[in-house]
Amino acid sequence: MPKHLKLINRRLRHAWFTPISWRRRLAFYGGALIVGLVAVGFAMAADQAQQLNQQLFARYPWLPFVMTPTLFALAAWLATRFSPGSQGSGIPHSIAGRHLRDSGLGQDLLTARVAFGKILLTLLGLLAGASIGREGPTVLVGASIMMVAAGLAGLKRERGFILAGAAAGIAAAFNTPLAGLVFAIEELARAYEQRTSGLVLLAVILAGIVSIATVGYYDYFGRSTVTLDLHNGWLPVIILGVFCGFLGGLFARLVLWTSRRLGRWFGKDLLHHPASFAAACGLVVAVAGYLTHGAVFGTGYAAARSALEGSGLIDWDFALAKWVVTAASTISGIPGGLLAPSLSVGAGIGSALSSLFVGTPAGSSAMLGMVAYFVGVTQAPITGFVLVMEMTGNHSMMVPLMAATMLGLGTSKLVCRVPLYHGLAMQIIHARRAAVRAASAASAAGADAGDKSAAPPNASS
């Protein structure tokens, strides 16, 4: 046998038939399947938590004034005390964990403990009526599960495993495999990585198989059949693209600005007493929920689907109140994502403005508002229109969605120059590095003090 054929045969045997390679492969397959199972179970539990919240509100309309601030405070305290790193969406922590893996500063960002706390406390927040979603937390949970699998298998390409787990989480959470792939490349990696693309694709496939086997094929918001006449329908595309992109960018800027300023305003009081601030945010959510008859509690899925189907126009009070409670829930420090609430806000704005566009279906306006606002918040344009297109099963709106996406992105960048998730991730990274530098400086100062105390006294004294 020629030498080059022997070399190829040896490499194939090493890649496919050694015990180490099979152990690593099985760990990856098992991790991706577990991500799918956990994502489906998380989705079911989240739906139950929201239903219980609605049932309690329907029976006791005054209850949110007590329950919502209390559970907000409890979630913030539990997150700080028992599951540090589980606060917020989870996507910034996944990005930070991927950047900090090589330096060793992000070892505790993506762990089984953080994932477990993220799931339980997100469910607690949904029970409280917080305007949060499970999709962002599912990204962190998926990345954490794959990191555990990578550790068991002794794999070194941990950064690729984070991408694979995050993509599988999005794909299983929304039942949108293509959006999961695009999200991993555009939002987490910010570049196409050929070495990890196979891992990401395989993880999405395996998680998708579990999701389909468990709950079957479905479109997240149902199948939409609305269309938009391109000859006469550019006015809603332009107006909704610009306006919703502006509001999305304003939301992102508010969250980034508040997250930077809170520490300066409250100092160590906020660090040691996060429950008080969370309770105040919970009170804001309770008041808004009471005034809107509970419509703004939770993800806002029902209102968004109604807007997309055109079965009922959404008033401005829902859209504005949902914007406020999503901001309050996000800055409160409790675990929970903002992907699904952002989609609801955008759909609400589009539906509220649909009466201005004569001859344009209300569902089309809701879709345009949804994608423009979502992109305005995240500044992830490809993920935005692919996600909305897959969630509605509507391909006839592709070109208008792309146009609204680009208008929303451009307007958002005028308001907020830094993408929300990456801005929050950089705050985590800078805080970790600053803590290491402070610890090193303190250690060096202690060593210098010890040397001085051990030195012999001056002979002239």
UniProtKB/TrEMBL annotation:
Lineage start: Bacteria, Pseudomonadati, Pseudomonadota, Alphaproteobacteria, Rhodospirillales
Record's bilayer topology term: Multi-pass membrane protein
Membrane-spanning intervals of the chain: 26-45, 57-79, 110-130, 137-155, 161-185, 197-218, 233-256, 277-303, 323-344, 356-377
InterPro entries in the cross-refs: Cl-channel_core (IPR014743), ClC (IPR001807), ClC-type_chloride_channel (IPR050368)
Protein name: Chloride channel protein
PANTHER family membership: CHLORIDE CHANNEL PROTEIN CLC-E
Subcellular location: Membrane
GO MF annotations, alphabetized: chloride channel activity
Keywords, ordered alphabetically: Chloride, Chloride channel, Ion channel, Ion transport, Membrane, Transmembrane, Transmembrane helix, Transport
Pfam families in alphabetical order: Voltage_CLC (PF00654)
GO CC annotations on file: chloride channel complex
Superkingdom of origin: Bacteria
